[in-house]
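As noted in the main text, all predictions were made from sequence alone. Below is one such record, for Major facilitator superfamily (MFS) profile domain-containing protein.
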Amino acid sequence: MAQNNFPLPGSGKFQRPGIDDRPDLDEAFDEDQMNAINRLAMPMKTEHIDEDHTIANPDLQLARMSAESGTAAVAAVATEVPGTDSAFLDLRDPMVSPDGHRPSRTEVIRLGIGFTLTAFLGAIPWLAMNSVLLPDLLQRIDFGSKDAMISIISSVGAVVALLSNVIFGTFSDLTRSRFGRRTPWIIAGGLVAGISVMLISLATNAWAVVVLMCLAQLGYNMMLAPFVATMSDRIPDKYRGTVSAFYGAGITTGQTMGTLVGSVMTNTSLGFALGGGLFALLGFITVAIWPREKGNKDQHREEFTAAMILNSFRPPRNAPDFYLALVGRTLMMAGYFMISSYQLYIVQYYIFGGGENSNADARSVIAIMSTITLVVSLVAAFVSGPIADYIGKRKLPVALASCLFAVGAAMPWIFPNAWGMYAFAVIAGFGYGVYNAIDQALNVAILPNPDEAGKDLGILNLANTLCTVLGSVFTAGIFMIFKSYALVFPVCIVVVLLAAFIIMQIKGVE
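Prediction:
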């Protein structure tokens, strides 16, 4: 008989995939990672299996195994597979946050309130400034160059915000302190933004306004980047959609209230002073509401080298969904800011023709629009988040919300009067409320590496910066070429529909 020379398992010549090539966990993971695994571990109950009477009959055993295997049932009934963004797919506990902590119900509620209230209070002065107070200030300082100056402020400020968002998001990832890695930057950013906005109230020169707005952008993004990254750090998968919905409701209602406050604030300098005071307090308010962030001075961190720092700023690779989400959000928000940033001028000159009382009439219309948007966006935000959690979908609601915003943008184009603007407030406001409620959960779901959440979310938040540039450039360019704001609306429609198409190309999220 010929000798069998095939390698046998365990002989060193034969590799069993998934068995012989498994890494030694004690060597593959450091102490912090092993502790995180142990926190998620659960003891398994041992079950004693009685001896089967069919053990002596192989044919009987084979028939029984075939009947009990469930193969026929699997073939006949579609088995539900969890989405790729689900914690169940990679065996993470959906009730445990990515930092390894299992928050109590009270802690989750405090985190949700903190996200909602901070988003609300931060959006009020920011939108009041950008939509009404800043255009009004520039109109008084230099009427002839008001459109150009808004475009310059948006463009230069966007570069500052773009860099600061990524830089401070990365620095917060690398920070080790007894207050944690996010808290110090949130407080410091609020103070820088607050002082800068207060000083704008004293400005009498357009270029001084440019410099101070850039400093305000730097402080605002110093606070925003670690603030948003906290959702990835401390919110379990189970609650992320709901918390994102409340966060979106805070943004939407805050932006609406900001426009309303700006429209009724006749004293522009007082408006900037009050807004600066609110920014200065905002970081303290946030960390006071949230459960205290644990100190991380003992957490492992690579040694600081030039190569490590440069690598920390490197955008994620092999992550197409990440970049689709970035482009989609940039275009959607650009469409929003095409109208929002020039809202005072659009109503004053496009709707009322720039007459003698057009400024006062425009402020009245904007106040009514803000009230309408506040109501519909609140309804949209509070309804859409829990529904998205229930159906387990993120991508489709975000795309549909973009389409709804496009429908709203068509109203003032078709009906160039105050009622057209009110229709825009109802339809686009509802769409924008849904979008803000779910988009942040979508962004967190497509993050390629939770350990670099601050940096990656900082890159995604560049959309908030790039959109102001694109929106301002599009609207300013249209006005400079055609001397009318009428074409702003069809261009906005094309931009947000393109955003919806791009969002639907994301593969890793339902």
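The mean pLDDT is 77. The chain has one domain: 105-503. These features were considered when defining construct boundaries for the mutagenesis experiments described in Section 2.9.
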